[in-house]
Write a structure and sequence with these properties.
By secondary structure, this protein is mainly α. The chain has one domain. Helix content is 75%, strand content 0%. Helix 1 (2-21) crosses helix 2 (27-41). The longest helix has 38 residues, at 185-222. Keywords: Cell membrane, Chaperone, Membrane, Protein transport, Transmembrane, Transmembrane helix, Transport. It holds the Pfam family 60KD_IMP. InterPro entries: YidC/ALB3/OXA1/COX18, YidC/Oxa/ALB_C, YidC_ALB_C.
């Protein structure tokens, strides 16, 4: 992890120097800029992940029909599901890669902030937080992290009757908020900004995937 930690430290310091050059010296702003940069780089992967997950949720009724129809023939069931995925252009495994890429970045940022050597510690302040390497004393960022996680999770739901979706809808935000309470505030900033951008992206993904499923359903009905 050390090369990645060093890279994030170098990027943060240079982004801080950029904020200083425009007259707004702030490490918190540097983290926000780093988050936007990471989001832009990972946009194609995240877009594919969001699209695939949303389409698969929209296809739940069709998937349940196939599972019911071929409940005694796992091989035909799997073949029919793969044909359904192919028809709608989704990959069930597409959600793994973005998570695997973002996890090392999150860990590296966490470790970098704990031992960060600020070029100017006075500029490590963020509103009510004296230093972004410290925990949020009022838990505002953890609450925002939990809230934005809930909103984004709610946007991916297609059915309010699925007990698994209901459990994850509430459990995941609570876990994120609880974890964020013990982490440096800088990570809270990163997570909240990432979620806000994810919510915006999810909105447009939802619009496009609904049209894809609707068009596919009409074509199948026509056949």
């Amino acid at each position: 992890m050390q090369p990645l930690i060093d890279a994030i430290t170098w990027i943060l310091n240079n982004l801080y120097l950029f904020t200083k050059s425009i007259g707004i010296p702030s490490y918190a702003l540097a983290i926000i800029m780093l988050t936007i940069l990471i989001k832009i780089i990972l946009y194609p992967l995240n877009h594919a992940q969001m699209k695939s997950m949303k389409v698969m949720q929209e296809l739940q009724p069709k998937m349940q029909e196939i599972q019911k129809k071929y409940k005694n023939d796992p091989q035909k069931q799997q073949q029919a599901l793969m044909e359904l995925y192919k028809e709608y252009g989704v990959n069930p495994m597409s959600g793994c890669l973005p998570m695997l890429i973002q996890l090392p970045i999150l860990i590296a940022l966490y470790r970098a902030l704990y031992n960060f050597k600020y070029l100017n510690p006075a500029h490590a302040k963020f509103f009510w937080i004296a230093n972004i390497s410290h925990k949020d004393p009022y838990f505002i960022l953890p609450i925002l992290a939990a809230l934005t996680t809930y909103i984004q999770s709610r946007m991916t739901m297609t059915s309010g009757n699925d007990p698994n979706q209901k459990v994850m809808l509430y459990v995941m935000p609570l876990m994120i908020g609880w974890i964020a309470m013990s982490l440096p505030a800088g990570l809270g900033i990163y997570w909240v900004v990432l979620n806000i951008m994810g919510i915006i992206q999810q909105y447009f993904v939802n619009q496009s995937t609904h049209k894809i499923v609707e068009r596919g359903t009409k074509e199948n009905a026509g056949d």
